[in-house]
Amino acid sequence: MNATMDTPDTRPHLWARGVAVDFTHDGVRNRVLHNIALDIPRGSFVSLIGPSGCGKSTLLKVLAGLLAPTEGEVRVADVEPGEAARQQRIGLVFQEATLMPWKNALDNVKLLMEIARRDLNNDQINERAMEMLTLVGLEKSANKLPSQLSGGMRQRVSIARALALDPEVLMMDEPFGALDAITREEMCEFLLEIWARTRKTIVLVTHSIEEAVFLSQEVHVMATNPARIIETLPIALPLPRCEATYALPDFGMTAGRLRALLKHGHGAGAAA
Ligand SMILES: Nc1ncnc2c1ncn2[C@@H]1O[C@H](COP(=O)(O)OP(=O)(O)OP(=O)(O)O)[C@@H](O)[C@H]1O
């Protein structure tokens, strides 16, 4: 079925059914992910949260086509994730910005385009890279090396680099994990602005309850041993969200509910 202007596409942008991942070490097979089912709507912002080591990054790798599941099926825009990745429909951002230290911000943003967009000439690549740096508020820092940028600025460059290929889905694994608390909050507000402007589907792995509640429309809560999704929590906080959002009674209540779910999923242990 094709969606038209009259019939909006309501199919999930990403979905997973019966996904399991086993890792074998010294001949011993260990089930890391168990029977994962997920539906992620197009244009939504969703988070995966769960205790350390429960398999969040492994699930993100499966969704990104970096790891084939042992069992189950995954689709990104109706194709297998590996194919979606080859078609440059998936952008990735990791905890470390992984920028080339000898290249300035502009050249780092150009890097993937130079490899993947042979249809664009140098001027076009330059123009698009500047556009992306402007989108992330770094147009004045285009000539700076990564060592001359703060951690938050480096992460903005890596987001610009991922967006330069115009992916449909942005997948982020603890992108602000290495930043201090205030920079982290600023980056969350910045990320929501980017999401509002680009309307990409964003999938975020995080340990932070506050980050998940502030950013997401839906939070998938994972439990451990083996990792599974124990609940999908809709976040009904109004958009746009800003510093005042943290003070809303609904914010505190939702964060409390998420904390309780994480504690439950973690057994007797503490939440994130
Ligand atoms: N390539 C691998 N080979 C064997 N075991 C692995 C591999 N990758 C991950 N694991 C194991 O799978 C489990 C889940 O790891 P994963 O990194 O997905 O968890 P996580 O929830 O993202 O953790 P954290 O929050 O600490 O980053 C861990 O026990 C980890 O040791």
UniProtKB/TrEMBL annotation:
Question: Which family does the record claim for this protein?
Answer: Belongs to the ABC transporter superfamily.
Q: Which residues form a coiled coil?
A: none
Entry protein name: NitT/TauT family transport system ATP-binding protein
Pfam assignment, any one: ABC_tran
Q: Which UniProt keywords apply?
A: ATP-binding, Nucleotide-binding, Transport
Q: Which GO terms describe its molecular function?
A: ATP binding; ATP hydrolysis activity
InterPro entries, alphabetized:
AAA+_ATPase, ABC_transporter-like_ATP-bd, ABC_transporter-like_CS, ABC_transporter_ATP-bind, P-loop_NTPase
Q: Where is the ABC transporter domain?
A: 16-249
